[in-house]
Amino acid sequence: MRLWNDRRLRLSLTGLGAQYLLALLAVGAFSVNTGNNLLYLVFSLMLGLFLVSGILSRRALRDLRILGVDEGNLFARVRGGLRLRLEDGAHGRVRGLELHLSLDRGRVEPGFLGTAPRQGEATVVLHARAEQRGWTRLGTLELRTQFPFGLLEKSRFLQLDQPILVLPHPRTPPAQPAGWRGEGHRTQPQPGSSSPEGARPLRLGDPPARMHWKRTAQRREPWVRTFEEERPLGLHLRLNQDAWAPGRPFERELERLSGAILQARLQKREVSLELHGTGGAREIRGHTPCWRALALAEATGRGTDQEASRSEVH
User: What confidence tens digit (pLDDT) does each residue in 77-119 have?
Assistant: First the structure.
């Protein structure tokens, strides 16, 4: 059932509202048949409560406008967050809104906006899960409320129609062999004096002098001390799009490279990506730029070779 003539609004009765309406009609029928003034009064109060419910829930949907969606780093097949920014012109108004957002080739979990903030802008984090990497599109935002009594449910629809980029799934890269280039040294101390900062698990190549014996005894596995002026080594990735054919192997390789970037980011290491394709070679630096480049990469060859991709620490 449409609400007035606004196509963006929709009104429906809840189960509780249907029971309430039947009770209202029953009281009205008894009051007419008996002529009891007390029943007339009860009928008037129940009708007034029903109308107030509709008016307040209609008011809870007003004065909201979409400012945009901050996509952040949304990975394929991984639950990520979308920050929905709303301009709210009603300071401190009780809303009780459920937010439902549609996503092409994916699903967005509902969010909730309880009270209008006094600063005029509301931010709601919606958890999304996209199925494939690449460009996808956010569709309609539905604002749904049963405030204040749960008798009526009103919905307002806002067209978002915003493209977002889904990054490749960050597959955990396999452990590298001991002879792998650069694997023995994960950090490089800067010139000058260093002071202890914390501790981390033992890695291949760590000197025994840095062993953190107390933490090792607590965790029952080797831990070493870290220092303030240790500089993490960078990770260099290479992908030759002409050496890969479209298909699942190419997607798995993108996921492996994406996982390597994520691991480097967690270890606070710099990342660069050397991308070879039909348009030539280009180099991208930074975690997010490398992820976005992998999300848009397309295989243009017929097969794979040993130089299709490479990872090295420098």
Answer: 999 999 999 888 777 788 889 999 999 989 999 999 888 777 7
What Cα–Cα distance (Å) separates residue 45 from each residue in 15, 25, 41?
20, 13, 6
CA 141 to chain centre: 16
* pTM to 2 decimal places: 0.70
Q: Beta strands 235-240 and 271-277: pairing type?
A: parallel
Domain residue limits, the chain: 1-166, 196-230, 233-313
If we measure between CA atoms, which residue out of 105, 160, 106 comes closest to residue 128? 106
Query: Which neighbouring-strand residues pair with 310?
Result: 238
Residue 141: CB atoms within 10 Å: 24
Half-sphere exposure of 217 (CA within 13 A, CB side): 2
| Eight-state DSSP code of residue 82 | E
Nearest one of 86, 81, 107 to 97, comparing CA atoms? 86
Return the CA Rg of the chain. 29
The Cα–Cα gap between 167 and 159 comes to 24
Question: Is 252 within 8 Å of 171 (Cβ atoms)?
Answer: yes
Cα–Cα distances (Å) from 301 to 247, 277, 293, 298, in that order, read 11, 9, 18, 9
- Token readout for 193 is 């004096």
